Amino acid sequence: MKAADVFIAGIVLAVVMLLIIPLSTSALDVFLVINITVSIFILITTLYIKDPLEFSILPTILLIVTLFRLALNVASTKLILGNGGEAGSVIATFGNFVTRGNLVVGFIVFIVIVAIQFIVITKGSERVSEVAARFTLDAMPGKQMAIDADLNTGAIDEAAARKRREDIQREADFYGAMDGASKFIKGDAIIGIIIMLINLIGGLVIGVTMGGMQITDALSIYAVATVGDGLVGQIPALLVSTSTGIMVTRSTSQDSFGVSVSKQLFDKPYVMIISAAIIAIISLIPGFPKIPAALVAVSLAFFGYRSISKTKKKEEKSTEDKAKELAKEKRKPENMTNLLQVEPIEMEFGYGIIPMVDANLGGDLLERVVMIRRQCALEMGIIVPSIRLRDNVQLGTNEYVLKIKGNEIARGEVMIDHFLAINIAGAKETISGIETTDPAFNMPALWITKNQREKAELLGYTTIDPPSVIATHLTELIKRYGHELLNRQQVQTLLDALKTQQPALVDEVYPKMFSLGDIQKVLMNLLREGIPIRDMATIVETLADYGNLTKDTDLLTEYVRQNLKRLITKRFITDGRASVITLDPRLEQLILERSKQNEAGPFVAMDPAQLQSMLRSLKNQIEKINNQGKTPVVLTSPLVRRKFRRLVEQVASDLTVLSYGEVEQSAEIHAEGVVAVQA
Q1: How many Å apart are CA 561 and CA 664, to the nearest integer?
Q2: What angle do CA 460, 461, 464 make, to 5 degrees?
Q3: Are 198 and 80 in a shared domain?
Q4: Where does this one sit in the cell (predicted)?
Q5: C-alpha–C-alpha distance, residues 597 and 555, integer Å
Q6: Would you give the distance in Å from CA 477 to the centre of its chain?
């Protein structure tokens, strides 16, 4: 246990024991001085902190200090009533200094101080603490979303986001605790009045009945002690109450309270000069004290003029510094590194889409982007980099552009306050709207007003709000271009995650068999055809099995695909049934015969006429399947699959091409057509 913890525990225990243990007058004097010192220390501390969280222990300190002050009140009451009004030098000094032979004045001063603390400072601090606690709790969701937005856009890293979340939680706890601690101070003010009455009435009763004093003598002795005891307790309480008020009324600043006052109150010279002129005019009123007014006016005018001079000097120096800095910048070569950086993925949008992005305006697009990254990680197994969102005044009002590595890959346009209606269910009745195309799936759609939404949904249309349109488009593009977002660092991250579970497997494959680049190529090949890489264990195991046989990443990808056949079947053959397009055996043989190899990799040297014939046949079969409302899937032999896929990817990039070895035996296959080539 640390010495500081033991020391604090001892102090708290000692404070509690003061409620029971009787004190001598000299010991009470020492504790009263300590009480005043601690109160002053707390007040000065609150003036010097920059952020309320720097003094987050204040609520607990308020409780301990209040308990300490109450313990001293109990001890002083014992001495006043049991020691003939003699309660030490501190109480006597305060009582004699305030009353100065006039008990009425002393009581009035005491009541005024108590009223100031109870009605003005304590009441105000309590109300501000209550409102601050409520507003802090209400603002927490918005602050959390802002942190997620900054993290998503790359403005902060994970460590900074974690710290900001902790600060938000600590801030909420602090203001909630201050709301409760203000009740301690309020109760302390009330108990001060009760103790004053007990000391006065009890002292008069004891002095007259038990001490045989005259009522005037008893009143003189016990009244002075009562006023002194009240003041020596209420003045520290007033200091602590003031500290509480300063803490809860301050906003977060980069400077201390004194520096902030100097900057914000006395950094406006013309305000001081105008105030000096007004005071000078007021001093002309007959009977108004002219000398004090003149001194104040002259002082304000002097400091205002001095501030103007300082401001001019600062501006001149700033101008000179800027000129020197520009001269230095011209002399030294320009740093072009920052200009060469390219964002992995970004979205630019017109100013009409800003309300969808800005959380303060009710937009939730940033939150949706966070969910998109999480969804892609769960579905595809890829780590999507932070998506940079920025406005672009060169775009249309409601237009947006999606870029990967600085290159535009897609753009779209939405209509604010409208809904996108898509006739997916094949509704026969039409509705009026602005014709458009769904940007994510290129399906015919309509922009309809909010009033038409209910009718459209009753007719069978699917309606989508503009933020969902953008989010869906972004999701599909990430899935389509996920292979371009996969870099070596992400591959290393995936291997590190797998290594925590299967270290022997990873050590066997990397770096002994394959480099990061080789593994990256295999993963990119899978992602390019829409196959998730979440099952890294199976992928790496396949590389371990075939790594000694071949280093051809394209061939290794085929082996991986066959070991992922359960996943592939489930992904591309829905409900266990598939209407497929097969290849004519002569076409497969032709592809194998025309396969060549060069430095760039394998390719098929097919005659142009034969290639055009094959593509026409493929197009006809695809249209036939599409007309049936089904998704076309081409099924080939394992040796031909990747070669055929490369032949047709330029004209049918989204076409699913599978081999017989990638389909589960339980799947029901129906051949709907054959791709052939004319001899």
Answers
A1: 12
A2: 140
A3: yes
A4: Cell membrane
A5: 13
A6: 26
Q: Is-contact 657 531, C-beta < 8 A?
A: no
Residue 637 to residue 662: CA distance in whole angstroms: 10
- For residue 333, the 8-state DSSP code is P
- The CA-CA-CA angle for residues 257, 146, 350, to 5°, reads 120
Token pair for residue 387? 């998506």
Residue 337 in any domain: the answer is no
CA-to-CA separations, 20 to 70, 74, 109, in angstroms, rounded: 12, 9, 31
| Highest mean pLDDT pick, 171-185, 307-321, 457-471, 616-630 | 457-471
Same domain, 272 and 245: no
CA angle 641, 642, 647 (to 5 degrees): 100
Nearest Cα to Cα of residue 239 among 30, 531, 39, 16: 39
| Full strand arrangement of the beta sheet holding 388-391 | 388-391, 345-349, 399-404, 407-413
**615 and 498 housed in the same domain:** no
CA angle in degrees (0–180, nearest 5) for 487-493-495: 105
Give the pLDDT score at 122: 67
Q: How confident is the model at residue 20 (pLDDT cuts 50, 70, 90)?
A: confident
**Mean of the per-residue pLDDT values of the chain:** 80
In-domain check, residue 327 = no
Residue (of 463, 462, 459) closest to 449 by Cα position: 463
Domain boundary among 457, 483, 509: 483
3-state helix, strand, coil in the chain (%, to 5): 65, 10, 25
pLDDT in tens, 31-40: 888 888 888 8
Per the structure, the complete domain to which residue 363 belongs is given by 345-483
The residues pairing with 583 across neighbouring beta strands, listed in sequence order, are: 675
Helix residue ranges, H only, 266-382:
269-282, 290-331, 337-340, 354-357, 365-380
Hey, CA dihedral for 397, 398, 403, 409, is it positive or negative? Answer: negative
What is the rounded distance in angstroms from the CA atom of residue 3 to the CA atom of residue 541? 56
DSSP 364-408: -HHHHHHHHHHHHHHHH---PPPPEEEE-TTS-TTEEEEEETTEE
DSSP string, 62-110: HHHHHHHHHHHHHHHHHHHHHTTT---HHHHHHHHHHHTT-HHHHHHHH
User: Do 653 and 526 fall into the same domain?
Assistant: no
CA distances from 267 to 273, 625, 659 (A): 12, 77, 78
Please provide the DSSP assignment of 509-556 as one string.
HTTTT--HHHHHHHHHHHHHTT-----HHHHHHHHHHHTTT---HHHH
- Cα 348 from Cα 413, distance rounded (Å): 12
Examine residue 332 and state whether it is found in any structural domain, yes or no.
Answer: no
What pLDDT, in 10s, does the model give residues 240-249?
777 777 777 7
How far apart CA 265 and CA 415 sit, in angstroms, is 48
How far apart are the C-alpha atoms of 443 and 423, rounded to whole Å?
Answer: 9
Paired sense of beta strands 388-391 and 345-349, if any: parallel
Model pTM score: 0.53
Q: Rounded distance, CA 101 to CA 271, Å?
A: 46
CA–CA gap between residue 46 and residue 296 (Å, rounded): 29
Confidence (pLDDT) at 158: 75
Q: Which residues of 73-112 are buried (b: 16+ CB within 10 A; e: fewer)?
A: bebbbebbbeebbebbebbbebbeebbeeebeebbebbee
**Is 29 contained in some domain?**
yes
Residues 6+ apart with CB under 8 A from 259: none
Spatial neighbors of 97 by CB under 8 A, at least 6 apart, are none
Position 329 pLDDT exceeds 60: no
Give the pairing of strands 633-636 and 577-583. parallel
> Which amino acid is it at 338?
N
Position with higher pLDDT, 85 vs 677? 677
- Phi, psi torsion values for 165, nearest 5 degrees: -65, -40
